[in-house]
Amino acid sequence: MEMTNRSLHGDSKVDCVSCDGLISRNCGDSADVSVPLTLPGKRTTHMEGDDLYRLRDRKLLLEDKKRLCAWALGTALFGILLMIIHAEICPYVYTPGSNIALIINCSISLSTGCLLILITAFHYKDIQLFIIDHNQVDWRIAMTSHRIIAITLELLVCVIHPVGSYWGVGLHVNSSSTVPTPSPLCVSSHHGEALMDMELLLSVLMFLRLYLVHRAILLHSKVLLSASYRSIGSLNNINFTFRFVLKVLMNKHPARMLLVFILFFWLTVSWMLTLCERQTKESTGHMDTALWLIAITFLTVGYGDVAPKTNCGKAVCLFTGVMGVACTAMLVAIVTEKLALNKGEKHVHFFMMDIQISKRIRHAAANVLRECWLLHRANVTKSNRGEHRKHQRCLLEAIRVFRHLRLKQRKLRDYVSEMVDLPKMQMIMCDLSANWNNSYRELEQRILSMEQKLDELSRCFQQTSDLLSQVVRHRNPEIR
Predict the structure, then answer these.
(1) Helix or strand or coil: residue 16?
(2) Residues ≥6 apart with Cβ < 8 Å to 20
(3) Which among 145, 222, 277, 444 could bridge 284 via Cys, Cβ 3.0 to 4.6 Å?
(4) Strands 15-17 and 23-25, how do they pair?
């Protein structure tokens, strides 16, 4: 199960008391469970250290999940390796008295049991983490139908492993016939083709355990472990799933990721094809031929010199062709991105192209003027008609070239104007807004200074009028 981004809803929310005495989480968030009252009219006190303990427990559970996922992936890979050894050596060491196949198959079964225990422990830790994140008490709340189906399907996938050697041992004990014919999967031919097909199918389906790779990448990625990523992702409602982590890795290292996937897929599917085709005794049962067939099928070439014979081999080649088409599309996208110019390179390139086109337009305009002058001189001198037609033809060609260059320049400038991205326009608008704000403040300061000066002038005028009235009264006492 993919781990999603949990933004610690229960870790950072503060308890709020409503007017009627009830306590709600996040001041009325209906998605969270309310805290019950101990007595009528009394509420339980919130311990300040509870959130710290929950954060500590959450961190420990995440570390346990990472450790269990790593152990589960290692156990799954070990079981697949034992299965490959079991399939490779059994056709050569199979004898009625040999117990090598039984020992290897018992080891595969033991690793499968350990893998099931690790998967169960992983989901147990996941349920504990769910309880801590949502501040629940009953673990059965976390057991939704989706979670139960996912756990059951995961356990069914992990329990698949070849068990044909157990029937082979029973046959050897209960039968006194001649030595059985060795088969590609250590299954006696007395059991018929049905058991051999079942053993082949179980061996191929063991590769489904590789789904644990995506969980390990998710839990050990720096994106999930970074607090900055989680904080910004929670603000933007981003779930930290494997799809998001894969997109980040493909954006950072696209060629490296695609190369690793193609090489691993090529080797794995080639071995599957050899396992499917080994019982036919054809050339496709050899690794070198299978590598060639998978390569030409993956590249959708299909020369037709080699073809699978069994239904299992045909299914493997069909799956390879589908994956080849998808990987080819991804490869084309990566190559296109690598060959594309960035913004700075585009600006430089189009700026130089604009300069060159401007020079060519000036030359074309000069050619038009020259041809007009030559045509005018031919009309004035009244030369022969051949020379007159020649100058007319050259003038029309110069006009055509001039118009073509002007149209090319217009298209180039239209494309350059479309390249202006939104962040750049936002920065320009922010600069303009800042300049306008500064101008407005300066204007306000000037208006305030003018008001102050006007007030001073009005006071001066008032004082001057008072002085004049006093002087006039002093000289003419009769005037009141």
Answers:
(1) strand
(2) none
(3) 277
(4) antiparallel
